[in-house]
Write a structure and sequence with these properties.
Chain B: Its EC number is 1.4.4.2. Chain B: One of its GO terms (molecular function) is glycine dehydrogenase (decarboxylating) activity. The complex is a heterodimer. By secondary structure, chain A is α/β, with parallel strands linked by helices. Chain A is built from 14 helices and 12 strands. Chain B has 2 domains: 113 residues, Aspartate Aminotransferase, domain 1, CATH 3.90.1150.10; 258 residues, Aspartate Aminotransferase, domain 2 (3-Layer(aba) Sandwich). The chains are: A alpha/beta, B alpha/beta. Chains A and B meet through helix 1, helix 2, helix 3, helix 4 and helix 5 of A and helix 1, helix 2, helix 3, helix 4 and helix 5 of B.
């Protein structure tokens, strides 16, 4: 399809801007003015609408296709939340920071506060900040809070421990917060090697970052012990909430011994993924860490009104205002609509769906860790590889059959990994249809592996040359 | 209740396939002593009750107040097509385009977005978006440290104070040095900045126009920085780029900014997007995702995520940034916004902002006891000196239904009598005249 710039015709005008009702001002000095207007496309409104409508049709999405992308929790996004979000679009955040401004934004402030309270109860933490704008941003904020805690105690610790199965964002976030990384391998029982962890822990370690259930979809039975070992060495414990969808109402990280947690509102709490964001990554902490939360804090005053307070001891500001508020509206709506019972049902059905998927596929696909899984299951295409078929080939075949592929090649500690997270919002019928195609791919692997190498053939483009893209570095069109 | 479709019969069948007697069996791997000690949330509601609750909260959202405030976030027009097209479920409910063949919609749109940002800023390479203006500026500073191998930045004091706080937080974690220079009144202290560059300086960071609304030509500053082996980072206001010299034209190495003004609503602070663009030679040091053009086996043009070896999912702790999810949908809104207005419409919009603000400046600046604090020309924001503390005036005018501006003293202690006023194209002459009347009343009655 042509680029919008290639549809541009000089002199064609799009949307009309408001008429001026003020006199024309004396022009800015020439030295400050741009010499040539920015080359934005000149298209009619219909050209524009047709272009982006047709572009959108070149996407798979949750609303059009089953999207079992492991670790991403691609659940259905309820439409009422869009209606709710639209109610707040004209609220100016600066109003809350003006002298005397708080009283005019009591609605949005009360919503921020209520969401923080809901998340604190769900995770078992004492206080929550909604400032971080995505999961990785939450991780960085959380580790900065941990660094501030150690600093206040006059300690300078150097290391953060992560398991090798962790999301790449964990070590990257800790590095941005100034730490060196110690990576612990996975033991044959599917979790961080406890002995290696124990050996790595010492009084130079600031924190250990855990995902539980881990990226293999396995609940770590030693999780409390891991926290205890850290605490004995004076280190803190960080819970990556990427997989929280598995344990709502079942386990609260705060009860288990975690000091800091982030949650991904765009995963567990049903907000749309937007083609790669916006997300939202609120951070919860235990009491002793509250002083180090970022500024500002939304507080409830004695008279029941809400205010904005500077938080002088904290780590400073990690984003410009109160976080991705529009996303917070949707998550608050989701939690409120479902209620406690509804959230428990979410996890139960998510875990049921994942175990059903695992049970139906494990005869054909190797299951490196064969045990009850939580919200997702991880297979390996190692068996298919013997016939020359990679996880990637299976993924591309699924596309031709109308399914978004699972996550492939992650986690890194499973060869040819295929990570499937169906989520609770998918029906048995949808999963059965997906399972049939997965079984068919396994059959084809034995009978006609080349059929898989050709896929996908039904999309606007076939497999794209990524090496060429990296070499050419063509990242914007001329003009 | 939780949008869970399976019926009791289906659940029974699934459990039979698994070989479990009930859902509780599936949670058996969780030791009893680790189970939740509390889960005290109220019962759920229907979507209709939820909307009643939401409407109640939205009613207390301050939308009746006429905003003459900015501070990096601006009340601009949004063409109807932006909402409509960005609301297409195929864009809205997809995720990161890891499988390019079934994500060409998102990928091509992001490629078009990157092209728009390059054209806006006069740069050669843009990523696919960052979180917001403040974090984009912080990422630009980190990028400059990587490129130069130096360990400090010079930060102009007239950069948005909220953004400066974010930059300082990020840099403090890495124990990098920040030399903050106070503004010269309402102006960028160009001479001061030039004198502060040392051989340890990775970058000079300025904002265009600055927090007080002043516009400066940064060409000489760029030259001076380059002479000393430092980079120039310019945080720019995208709407102003319809009229003002772009960072690229002035010789900047990295251009960033808060993208909200491009088609994203105020929404009480987000979601917005941050943009970042640079020279082609620095492309491998960009943070976050980048979309590149390529072809398939049949030579058909297509788009993929490229240069991923910079990113956290491959490089882990050695990545250029920890960013994963960014603000894709908000960036898409930005793209559709500029494409809706087009080349001429965008330039006209900038000019309209300028004209409105110049009118407001003439009316407000003529009030008894009020004077203009900017020495340099301004775009759509300017700073007034008032005969009374600005905080007091603002609080009083809020009760009259107008947010008159942002008091400078909140961020620059001691400058009690100054007020930054913002006038976008949405403010009518009648609203500006009414502001003048109310301001006069607040000052003298």
């Amino acid at each position: 399809m042509e680029l919008i710039y290639e549809k541009s015709v000089a002199g064609r005008s799009g949307v009309r801007i408001p008429l001026s009702d003020v006199p024309k001002a004396a022009p800015l000095p020439e030295a400050l003015r741009r010499t040539e207007a920015a080359g934005f496309p000149e298209v009619s409104e219909l050209d524009l609408v047709r272009h982006y409508t047709n572009l959108s049709r070149r996407n798979f999405s949750v609303d059009t296709n089953f999207y079992p992308l492991g670790s991403c929790t691609m659940k259905y996004n309820a439409k009422v939340m869009e209606q709710a979000g639209a109610l707040f679009v004209d609220c100016h955040p600066m109003l809350a920071l003006l002298p005397g401004g708080e009283k005019y934004v009591q609605g949005p402030l009360s919503l921020v506060h209520a969401l923080e309270q809901q998340l604190a109860e769900i995770t078992g933490m004492d206080e929550v900040t909604t400032q971080p704008l995505a999961g990785a941003h939450g991780e960085m904020t959380g580790i900065m809070v941990i660094a501030a805690y150690h600093k206040a105690r006059g300690e300078k610790r150097k290391y953060v421990i992560v398991p090798d199965s962790s999301h790449g964002t964990n070590p990257a976030s800790a590095a941005m917060a100034g730490y060196e990384i110690i990576t612990i391998p996975t033991a044959p029982y599917g979790d961080m090697d406890l002995d290696a962890y124990r050996a790595a822990m010492n009084n130079e370690v600031a924190a250990v970052m855990m995902t539980c259930p881990n990226t293999l979809g396995i609940f770590n039975p030693h999780i409390a012990e891991i926290c205890e070992i850290a605490h004995q060495a004076g280190a803190l414990t960080y819970y990556d909430g990427a997989n929280l969808n598995a344990i709502l109402g079942k386990v609260r990280p705060g009860d288990v011994g975690f000091d800091v947690i982030h949650v991904n509102l765009h995963k567990t709490f049903g907000t749309p993924h937007g083609g790669g964001g916006p997300g939202s990554g609120p951070v919860g902490v235990k009491k002793g860490l509250i002083p180090y939360l970022p500024t500002p804090r939304v507080v409830k005053n004695a008279d029941g009104s809400f205010g904005v307070e500077a938080h002088p001891e904290g780590i400073g500001r990690v984003s410009d205002f109160f976080g991705n508020f529009g996303i917070m509206v949707r998550a608050y709506g989701y939690i409120t609509l479902l209620g406690g019972e509804g959230l428990i049902e979410v996890s139960e059905q998510a875990v049921l769906n994942a175990n059903y998927m695992m049970a139906r596929l494990k005869d054909e696909y190797e299951l490196p860790f064969d045990m009850t899984c939580m919200h997702e299951c991880v297979f390996s295409a190692a068996r298919q590889l013997k016939d020359g078929v990679h996880a990637l080939d299976i993924a591309k075949y699924l596309i031709d059959r109308g399914f978004h592929p699972p996550t492939v090649y992650f986690p890194l500690n499973v060869k040819e990994a295929i990570m499937i997270e169906p989520t609770e919002t998918e029906s048995k019928a949808t999963m059965d249809a997906f399972i049939e195609v997965m079984l068919e791919a396994a059959r084809l692997t034995r009978e006609n592996p080349d059929a898989l190498h050709q896929a996908p053939e039904t999309m606007p483009v076939g497999r794209l040359d990524e090496t060429r893209a990296a070499r050419a570095q063509q990242v914007c069109c001329e003009g | 209740m939780g949008y869970c479709p399976n019926t009791p019969e289906e659940i029974r069948d699934m459990l039979a396939v698994i070989g479990a007697s009930g859902v509780a069996d599936l949670f058996a791997p969780i030791p009893e002593e680790l189970r939740a000690k509390s889960f005290n949330l109220p019962a759920g509601v229907s979507e209709f009750e939820l909307m009643a609750l939401m409407r109640e909260k939205a009613r207390q959202g301050g939308t009746e107040i006429v905003p003459f405030i900015g501070g990096g976030i601006y009340d601009h027009i949004i063409p109807a097509a932006v909402d409509h097209l960005s609301g297409r479920a195929e864009f809205y409910t997809a995720y990161t385009p890891y499988q390019p063949e079934c994500a060409q919609g998102t990928l091509q749109a992001l490629y078009e977005y990157q092209s728009a940002i390059c054209r806006l800023t006069g740069m050669e390479a843009s990523n696919a978006s960052l979180y917001d203006g403040g974090t984009a500026l912080a990422e630009a500073a980190l990028m400059a440290l990587r490129i130069t191998g130096r360990h400090a930045v010079v930060l102009d004091g007239s950069v948005n104070p909220l953004h400066r706080e974010v930059v300082c937080g990020y840099l403090a974690s890495l124990e990098a040095g920040v030399c903050q220079l106070p503004p010269a009144g309402c102006e960028v202290d160009l001479a001061g900045l030039m004198n502060s560059i040392t051989e340890e300086t990775a970058a000079v960071i300025v904002q265009h126009p600055n927090f007080f609304g002043s516009v400066a030509d940064l060409t000489e500053l760029a030259k001076k920085a380059h002479e000393q082996g430092a980079l120039l980072i310019v945080s720019c206001y995208p709407i102003a780029m319809g009229l003002l010299k772009s960072p690229g034209e002035m010789g900047a190495d990295i251009a960033v900014g808060e993208g909200q003004s491009l088609g994203n609503p105020l929404s009480f602070g987000g979601p917005y997007f941050g943009f970042i663009a640079t020279r082609k030679r620095f492309i491998r040091n960009l943070p976050g995702r980048i979309v590149g053009e390529t072809v398939d086996a049949q030579g058909r043009r297509g788009y993929v995520l490229t240069l991923q070896a910079r990113e956290q999912h491959i490089k882990r702790h050695k990545a250029t940034s920890n960013i994963c999810s960014n603000q894709s949908l908000c960036a898409l809104r930005g793209l559709i916004f500029v494409a809706s207005l087009g080349k001429k419409g965008f330039a006209d919009l900038a000019l309209l902002n300028y004209d409105k603000a110049e009118y407001a400046k003439s009316v407000l600046g003529a009030l008894k006891g009020v004077s203009l604090a900017n020495a340099a020309p301004t775009f759509n924001e300017f700073t007034l000196k008032l005969p009374k503390p600005a905080a007091e005036v603002v609080a009083r005018l809020l009760d009259r239904g107008v947010a008159a501006g942002v008091p400078v003293a909140g961020y620059y202690p001691g400058r009690e009598d100054e007020l930054v006023v913002t006038v976008t194209e949405k403010r009518t002459k009648a609203e500006i005249d009414a502001l003048a009347a109310r301001l006069e009343e607040a000052l003298w009655n």
